[in-house]
Specification:
By secondary structure, this protein is mostly helical. The protein is built from 30 helices and no strands. The longest helix is centred in the middle third of the chain and has 27 residues. It is found in: Membrane.
Amino acid sequence: MYSERSFLRWHIFPYWRSFVMVLLPLLLLPLPVISATKEARCGYVIMVMAGYWVAEVLPIPVTGIIPVFAFPLLGILSTGELCMVYMKETNMLFIGGLTVAISVEACNLHQRIALFVILHVGQSPRRLMAGFMMTTMFLSMWISNTATTAMMVPIVDAILMELYTTQEERNVAHSASGDVLVSAAEQQQLQHLSSEGDSDTHPASSCKDVSVSEETENNNAMPTNGNNKIPDDYIQKQRHYMRRALLLGVAYAANCGGTGVVTGTGPNLVLMGILSDSFSEPTGLNFATWMAFNVPGMIICVIICWLWLQFLFMGLCRKNSPVQHITPEREIAVKKLIRKKYTDLGPISHHEATVLTLFIILVFLWLFRAPEFIPGWSAWFTDAFGEDLELGDATPAILIAFLLFVLPSSLDFWCFRDPKDTKAPKRSPACMNWQILHEKIPWGIILLIGGGFAMAEASEKSGLSKWLGIQFASFDVMPKEAIVFVVSLMTAMLTEVTSNTATASILLPVLKEMALNIQVNPLYLMLPATVACSYAFMLPVATPPNAIVFSASNMRSIDMVKAGFIMNIICVLVITLTINTLGVALFDLNEMPSWTNSTTSSL
């Protein structure tokens, strides 16, 4: 027995990914050999790719390039036809939007926005959580949710260190530097300021904001020593609970924020690409209508998440919570810390102002390109050059990205140059340079999205999607509302263990054919499933934000599962509700649209 265990430990387990990589294609090989149909060959490649993506036997982007050689060699698609789908309008839209997002990160504009919001939202634990989640949600709509989460973690740690500081840490900080924490003399001054009525920190008499003195008298959960001081170990416990709650809130808000706009996350782009490839007429889903549908649901999910994490970690009332014993002095010290961090950024620079201006222009160009309620600016070009001209969202995205490489980051040339500056003039750097873009842009995601498009196209051409859609047509016996709930819940659970982009690439073509077979608007099934791909709250491996906060908080996996399982169910219920209310109003989902008859056979 011992030798068998040793053999498995030393010769099998370390190489299990290699065994999966070799054995999976061999085990599935009878499928294309016995059937010998194009559908079977296409299904074989997709099943191998799905297995590789789930087990991560290869880097996910590398798995995404398998179709380039597999589909041509198996006679499913030609090489030229296949390579076209790897760089199409959706990919260009992704690159353009990501370039603007990287420029926002490069000039630290996202940090300025985050500190500004947190400074003004309030410094009590509940308000801090709301501020962190609101800021993370907004930033992750436009920039990488991974970058947003990574930026928020050190800010959370700095604020919690100021909010829950033990006497030992305070003494060490005072001996190191006098301005890190508030001294004893400053404590009296801060308490005097608090008694004068600071709107952000003055305690109220309600259950939520009972004073510290009342709380100390009435709450037996808070231990004190002979000097009426809270023990250091109890303060550390408070900080531990609050840190876990804040970090989970940041991760959940980052995941939800990606659903707000088309460019927020990979599955959104996969959906737009599949719709544009499958139907030649407009489907009614564009940047403006996407935001009109998803932003309300996103906000509802974040608010519910805020309430759920408060219930889980703080309780419903402050006097019953182990993390709410915050003195007014500590809250003022936190506000002082945040204001100092914000002041250290200095006044907004020309670089930041230029990037912010271009970012706002891009959002307006996206919103008003082709809104449904008024003619968009793209209609001007259609009227001028003919109806065959179609301007997509990639055009303004690449235009603004191009301007970032053109416009200077500082005004120190020509008439803007300081006359007293005797140094030789030199060319001002642009707002974005290629080195930063090359280092930060996730080229692997582009290959992953391309691999998803290749799978969708191959499934369409081989007939696999239509065959699977016919098989799933038996769900027609269920109410359509129940079908949406089941599809969304299944998607949310599947995306816990695999890439959300890979999940969307596999499911969306099948859901499109299923909707057509049961005579339901394809958006009714595809849109909720796409949004549900971002509802990965349970496991650390589900999304990069989950992995970041899991590592930073040192929590157990079971703790994340307990908090995330309820969030999964709640968010699936929210998307089921919104697609049957707001979605019906926006996209007329009760009727089979005419654009479903305008199928296209080419990319």
